[in-house]
Amino acid sequence: MTHPDHLLRTNPETHCHRFAFQSNSALGLVVFMNRMLFSHRFCCSFAHLTAVSYGELLHTLWVYTSPKGSPLWHRRLLVA
């Protein structure tokens, strides 16, 4: 599997997502998710994420899309 850093160096279209790969914060992953959802290369780029990044991305999406007032809303404040 190609390492994300390698993709960023060789593919200009993914260069703008460097922050998401370098940041371990939930915000970085959300920024990445928002950008990739509107990218025509979403499937191709998403397939190169590591299993760990994939799991973190799904967890972050779950937390950030939870209804305000739910238990996850309070966790969201702690994660961010």
Distance between the termini: 29 Å
Assign a percent range to the helix content.
Answer: 55-70%
Total number of beta strands: 0
CA-based gyration radius: 13 Å
Q: Helix count, per DSSP?
A: 6
> Can you tell me the overall shape?
globular
Order of helices and strands: HHHHHH
Amount of beta strand: under 5%
Largest beta-sheet characterization? none
Number of domains: 1
* Overall pLDDT: 53
Structural class: mainly alpha
How does this model look, in words?
Mean pLDDT is 53; it is low at 1-23 and 76-80. It contains six helices and no strands. The protein has one domain (4-79). The chain is mainly α and 80 residues long.
Keywords:
65% helix, disordered N terminus, 6 helices
List the topology elements.
Blueprint: H1 4-10, H2 18-22, H3 26-37, H4 42-46, H5 51-64, H6 71-79
Short description:
The protein has 80 residues and is mainly alpha-helical. It contains six helices and no strands.
